[in-house]
């Protein structure tokens, strides 16, 4: 059987009907909160580190929000990506054996969100670009440690060096930052790397990050202006 909302695969994901049922189990106030988030959000990532304020103020549990928001985002994406009509989506839901209540709830919510379907489509495309290519950094942990400075290492004593007790003499401390970076590739495989930095190197890193941030602002201003000029030229043709 051919469905229109699942693209080239033409088959629903394993958890599609379960997610749709979860959407139907929400009460009207919870669906209102979900809709308001879609209408006001600039990015549609339901797996962020913190719940959006409008969701946190509702009775939606984090797992409910993640499950239902990802479903609605996928439906909005398909609606825009494949040039569908709302009736096409309702037809597919009927073919999938969804109940009349499930179809009614989904259609009503999608109709309410029709103005942001293009934004949801672009947001999904942006997400694809963010995970394609090299692994992405998903977490950075920084811990400071103090390492003692002895007159000699425990394993480097030579009887003829003139000071048989140098390895026991403590002259101070050196401070080192241990930085652990966790990255994930497009398939979700995680990898970790840990490095250490001196205070001086850490200071240079902070300066580099600040300067790179300033470069990003300049780059974004330039590309935004270029895109606007291109759009103006296309509109004049």
Structure, described:
The model has no long low-confidence stretch (mean pLDDT 88). The protein has 2 domains: 7-131, no CATH class; 136-236, no CATH class. It is 52% helix and 16% strand. The protein has a 3-stranded antiparallel sheet. Strand 2 (170-184) and strand 3 (190-198) form a beta hairpin. The chain is of the alpha+beta class and 237 residues long. The chain has helices at residues 16-25, 28-40, 53-56, 62-81, 86-95, 100-112, 117-131, 199-236; strands at residues 136-150, 170-184, 190-198.
Short description:
This protein is α+β, with helices and mostly antiparallel strands. The protein folds into two domains: 7-131, no CATH class; 136-236, no CATH class.
Notable features of this structure?
237 residues; alpha+beta; 2 domains; three-stranded antiparallel beta sheet; 3 strands
Can you tell me the residue ranges where pLDDT is under 50 for at least 5 consecutive residues? none
> What does the main sheet amount to?
3 strands, antiparallel
Give the helices and strands as they follow along the chain: HHHHHHHEEEH
Instruction: Please state the CA-atom Rg, rounded to the nearest Å.
Output: 27 Å
Percent of sequence in beta strands:
15-25%
Shape: elongated
Number of helices: 8
What strand order characterises the main sheet?
1-2-3
Q: What gap, in angstroms, lies between the N and C termini?
A: 43 Å
Structural class, from helix and strand content? alpha+beta
- Helical content stands at 40-55%
Whole-number tally of structural domains: 2
Q: How many strands in all?
A: 3
Q: Look at the structure and give the mean pLDDT.
A: 88
């Amino acid at each position: 059987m051919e469905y229109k909302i699942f693209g080239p695969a033409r088959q629903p994901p394993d958890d599609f009907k379960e997610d749709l049922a979860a959407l139907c189990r929400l009460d009207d106030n919870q669906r209102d909160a979900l809709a308001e988030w879609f209408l006001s959000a600039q990015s549609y990532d339901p797996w962020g580190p913190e719940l959006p304020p409008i969701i946190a103020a509702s009775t939606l549990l984090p797992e409910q929000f993640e499950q239902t928001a990802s479903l609605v985002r996928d439906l909005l994406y398909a609606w825009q990506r494949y040039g569908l009509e709302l009736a096409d989506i309702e037809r597919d839901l009927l073919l999938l054996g969804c109940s009349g209540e499930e179809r009614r709830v989904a259609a009503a919510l999608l109709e309410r969100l029709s103005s942001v379907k293009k934004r949801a489509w672009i947001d999904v495309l942006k997400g694809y670009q963010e995970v394609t290519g090299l692994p992405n950094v998903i977490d950075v942990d920084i811990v400071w440690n103090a390492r003692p400075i002895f007159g000699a290492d425990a394993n480097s004593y030579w009887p003829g060096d003139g000071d048989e007790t140098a390895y026991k003499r403590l002259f101070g401390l050196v401070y080192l930052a241990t930085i652990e970076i966790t990255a994930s590739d497009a398939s979700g495989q995680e990898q970790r790397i840990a490095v250490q930095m001196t205070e001086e190197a850490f200071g240079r890193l902070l300066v580099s990050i600040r300067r790179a941030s300033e470069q990003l602002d300049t780059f974004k201003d330039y590309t935004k202006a270029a895109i606007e000029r291109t759009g103006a030229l296309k509109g004049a043709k």
